[in-house]
């Protein structure tokens, strides 16, 4: 679907760009003169509501260690394991920032977590990290550790798999390949594979490929495109993908408005920000 540029401009300028601008001071370590309801809610739950994917506390904390932005062959397996543990267990937990996030040995985890008893589980695992509580638990550690070994071997193939191939492998090949990712749904799996891209373990998709992934996922980003008037509720996956691609291209050419480098703008951040726009809409 080809969308008129003016429609993109009008929809993004108000109120999506206003949303971005309203919370951009967070990235600069600043505070607005008067804290709005939007600001208060985003700052209180930045991991869940900040539109700048890589600037939220959990991801920013991991990125301090360069292995999470440029993994080497000798660190790749540890990075994959650690990314799974972060997404599946520690993300948004009270203890998330108490460890650098890289687990190279099993003992590293047990030294951090202890015996895995139930009395302090809530300190290490937020069961509501991605919305409604599910089967998130630190008891999945060994399962995740084995999955990290298998997925890292897959990534180390003579011909490195693409983003789309890796996403498909992680989502669907567990039973065939002998690994499992309990508690991971379509969204958390997507976030995990994106984390692998940032680590340099998986190649970037084209924006068209990623637009198709967004359309297939059909979650918050799609809802936000409807709210912005760029697509209808009855839009096909092709129309959703087309709207996402054009939104990305338009936003990527707005350096004065979007402060691209400052917020870490890329196609993953846009999908993330659209999801947060939907979640924060009531405070705009």
From TrEMBL:
Origin superkingdom: Eukaryota
Protein name: Uncharacterized protein
């Amino acid at each position: 679907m080809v969308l008129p540029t003016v429609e993109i401009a009008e929809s993004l300028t108000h109120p999506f760009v206003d949303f971005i601008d309203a919370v951009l001071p967070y990235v600069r370590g600043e505070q607005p003169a008067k804290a709005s309801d939007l600001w208060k809610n985003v700052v209180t739950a930045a991991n869940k509501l900040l539109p700048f994917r890589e600037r939220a506390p959990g991801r920013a904390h991991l990125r301090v260690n360069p292995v999470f932005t440029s993994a080497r062959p000798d660190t790749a397996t540890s990075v994959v394991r650690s990314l799974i543990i972060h997404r599946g267990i520690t993300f948004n937990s009270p203890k998330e920032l108490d460890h650098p996030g890289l687990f190279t040995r099993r003992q590293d985890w047990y030294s951090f977590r202890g015996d895995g008893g139930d009395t302090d589980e809530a300190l290490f695992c937020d069961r509501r990290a991605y919305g409604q509580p599910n089967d998130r638990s630190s008891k999945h550690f060994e399962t995740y550790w084995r999955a990290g070994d298998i997925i890292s071997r897959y990534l180390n193939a003579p011909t490195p798999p693409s983003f789309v191939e890796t996403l498909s492998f992680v989502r669907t090949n567990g039973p065939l390949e002998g690994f499992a990712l309990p508690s991971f749904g379509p969204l958390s799996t997507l976030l995990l594979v994106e984390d692998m891209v940032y680590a340099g373990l998986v190649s970037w998709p084209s924006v068209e490929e990623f637009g198709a992934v967004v359309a297939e996922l059909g979650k918050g980003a799609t809802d936000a495109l409807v709210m912005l008037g760029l697509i209808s509720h009855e839009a096909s996956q092709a129309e959703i993908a087309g709207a996402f691609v054009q939104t990305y291209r338009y936003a990527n050419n707005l350096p004065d408005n979007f402060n691209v480098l400052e917020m870490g703008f890329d196609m993953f951040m846009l999908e993330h920000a659209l999801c947060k726009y939907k979640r924060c809409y009531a405070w705009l």
